[in-house]
Amino acid sequence: MTTAQKPDWKAVVARKRAERDALIPAEYDIPASKLPPVDGKSVVSFPATCGLLTPAEVAITEIDDVDVLLAKLAKREYTAAEVLEAYIKRACIAHRLVNPITEIHFDDARRWARELDDELQATGKTRGPLHGLPVSLKDQFRIKGSDATIAYVSYVGRQADHDAVCTALLKEAGAVPFVKTNLPQTIMFAETRNELFGTTLNPHNRLLHTGGSSGGEGALVAIKGSPLGVGTDVGGSVRIPAGMCGLFGLRPSSHRFPYEGAVNSMEGQETIPSVLGPLTRTLSGLTTFTKAILAGRPWLYDPLVPEMPWSQSRYDAAKAKKGLKIGLMSTDLHVHPFPPYERALQVARDALTKAGHDVVPFVPYEPGQGLAIMGDAFCADGGRDVLEAISGCDEPLGPQVTGVGKPEKSAYELWQINKRKTVYRKRALDHWRDAGVDFVLCPTSVYPAMKHDDECWILYTGLWNLLDYTAISLPVSSVDAKLDPKRSSPPHDGWYSDDDRRWNDKYDPDLVDGAPIGLQVVAGRYREEEALGFAETVWHAIRG
Amino acid sequence: MTTAQKPDWKAVVARKRAERDALIPAEYDIPASKLPPVDGKSVVSFPATCGLLTPAEVAITEIDDVDVLLAKLAKREYTAAEVLEAYIKRACIAHRLVNPITEIHFDDARRWARELDDELQATGKTRGPLHGLPVSLKDQFRIKGSDATIAYVSYVGRQADHDAVCTALLKEAGAVPFVKTNLPQTIMFAETRNELFGTTLNPHNRLLHTGGSSGGEGALVAIKGSPLGVGTDVGGSVRIPAGMCGLFGLRPSSHRFPYEGAVNSMEGQETIPSVLGPLTRTLSGLTTFTKAILAGRPWLYDPLVPEMPWSQSRYDAAKAKKGLKIGLMSTDLHVHPFPPYERALQVARDALTKAGHDVVPFVPYEPGQGLAIMGDAFCADGGRDVLEAISGCDEPLGPQVTGVGKPEKSAYELWQINKRKTVYRKRALDHWRDAGVDFVLCPTSVYPAMKHDDECWILYTGLWNLLDYTAISLPVSSVDAKLDPKRSSPPHDGWYSDDDRRWNDKYDPDLVDGAPIGLQVVAGRYREEEALGFAETVWHAIRG
């Protein structure tokens, strides 16, 4: 296509945004004049206090616990239709505040919700374990009838003619997908901004980013515009926004949940597969999602999903286990986590020790090697996939962790990367097994949410993608500018490098005061049940 | 390395073979003059009748059922030492007849067997589920202290300093690895010949090949020089030699069994992973191996093995299931199986129908597409891996299914192959699910064992590697020159192509009279338990 024939990307963007916004009911669209100014103050409560929601709708959307909401739906205390409408309203307000939405499916969702209500009325039975639960989906997940642009301007108009398997299983379980959410261009970055849909803001502090790549989910679920969202994670993209937005986020091992039918960038990159996982406001929501998806037998519809049904006994055993041996990983040996993470780890260690567990130091296996392998895997195509995707209309290329500007590898060289990966994974497995820990507790990131348009450091999460271990981010704390002052001297073990010092220089306690701090519970591979069980133990020790 | 500096490959070969043969005890080494001439007659019984084995040793090695042998070992009816010695003797005779052995570990094995006997004597307990079972391993599996050349001359002398995980788990289960076995150069071919160790012959008819790539195992287990062998399979390499040699062979789904620590060609090729699987003389042996390996918790030692313990209930349910719906796949739509396969399928259909099952036609999903994807995946490196491996001493390159002579793909192009694979697997899964079959029954190959130095056609097995389905080859029949004459006219649906006709022209009933015929039971992905259970049903219907 010559440049002359290419569509004007800015025109496409304007049209796409206008089409989306036209689907926001006028009565739910708060005029800009009535919105609070964009500043460092939290807007999480604004939708509940702005007067648009009825008291019942406020009550519905303030139920953080998905299980509580599901119980009320099953008992017909609420109809699916009214729960959906409450969330539609709140999502519309959220959208004007923090810009999380890419695609709107309100009409479809309303129809599905009515069907669920009719079904329950007629049969006395819920459709499935998620009966009536509105859910938001990261833009990648196809919903029949709308685009899944993954924020590439050139993908606008490629309407899905079928649901992704995840979408279909959610609907089968009774969930009601009603919006899709924002992500960074290429999906290979840990902030959420792109040319097509713009930047998503952090509802706790709109001067800060939401992390990424599932940052639309992070923002929307945190502001209670959705009770549960589905993101994806190839280097931390569920856990980082969960951590930055004060949510729970689960990265399962590869293919435990069905990715089939989701649009992705760099498709065919199998060295480190992207996985999907839920973000929600209580830990039990992650468990409920996991059980519901597995109950749908995803292996019948996704050729990559192994047949591993939910194991209640493994979950129960993990949750009940006394005297756990917990590996505390306080550093990735490359960048020291900012002071609020150090405090969070200290709090966690004290609480878990008090609860009778054995908290021991855990040093990750050669994380530098892991980082190099990840970089080589993600960059192997020399950015061809990304460049092809943006070439359709020459949209500008933003920041990303891909091979753009790097030489393309050959297939043989890619095989050598795979080989290094397997050697690394073997050594790391031996290291983990020899440590004899039940799980590892570590920071979700180096930094809390930071100013928009920064760089990203993803080793604390990416390491577990490379090893394919199950990891859950828990919102254990938040920055307290008084308790977490900037370091006045180097950490006790000194700076690892100029880069370490440079990263830590970015810490601005006053700017990020109150920003959420996440820690990860990391269990082994395909140990979703154990990770969820152990996370309960950690959560209750710290918060209970 | 300049040519001047490279070792003379023929000298390396001569030295390596001499070193190996020096490990054959002189008293077990039958002089060439006392060996039968190489002709079309079976030599399976020769070791039992040549006078070298004692009657007790004949009795031991004639026990085909691994479970029966294990029971006698556990009851101390036989010691591990005497069972091993019987198999060592028979393997030595076998070696002079059909050339299956690459590496000899008799001394280590004798020591391990004595330890097992002492342990059972002292504690009254067997070490594990394979207590005292001699096992042979395809050359890929490292045993500490010997080479794992995979038949590359340039790999001679790279002594392993550790056991492969499979080796270690077998020993932990009480098995006694005592020899390693032959495979083709590159491992990417379905016959078993190479410059380093020569050609392995089929004990049923030494004018014929054994199939491959695990042809050393096929020959050694068939001639009862080993009760159970471990092969590997990336396109049929366990099932083809099992089929050609009249054995049972299991290809599990990828990474169900631990490949870690095995040497391989084309390492890092992950598009279609090679897997390991057992070959043995009774079906129960496959089940016993599977249970024993999984009982060793391979996921603790191999980072790629998912934590999927043996499920007795799934096995029992599959075995007991009545009224199965069985898909009979009589063709790959490219090459018609030779007449003895048609008869074997007919026999199986009649027997299964009589046993109350519903046998329906099954047409595979677009096998031509599958073949193209396999070819592209295996050839992606343009043969660089293979060329590098032989460059060490310029050994001649034999036939192989690799990229030698083809252009090397780029990493981006390899991603596109991966993408096509996933699309194909999704469509094939939908196709399979919609067919609603419990399992598929199909030929293991187009041809029985054929003359040495031919070409190979692997679509009947390779299709299941691409889809990663569990498949078991059963020795259901053998060629009967009278019952299976050469076709006098085209098949009822006509030749698919000149290639189809060309392949079928190779069929020579007189030459291959008596050669084994295998059929595969194919269940879905990670359905080893179901495949083993269904295989029992098929076996009993046909043979019971």
Automatic annotation (TrEMBL), chains A, B:
InterPro entries: Amidase_CS, Amidase_dom, AS_sf. The active site is at 138 (charge relay system), 213 (charge relay system), 237 (acyl-ester intermediate). Residues 82-531 form the Amidase domain. This is amidase. The keyword Hydrolase applies. Signal peptide: none annotated. PANTHER family: AMIDASE (EUROFUNG), AMIDASE-RELATED-RELATED. The keyword Protein biosynthesis does not apply. It comes from Pseudozyma flocculosa. It catalyses: a monocarboxylic acid amide + H2O = a monocarboxylate + NH4(+). Keywords: Hydrolase. GO terms for molecular function: amidase activity. Belongs to the amidase family. Substrate binds at residues 187, 213, 234-237. Residues 481-501 are annotated as: Disordered. It holds the Pfam family Amidase. Its EC number is 3.5.1.4.
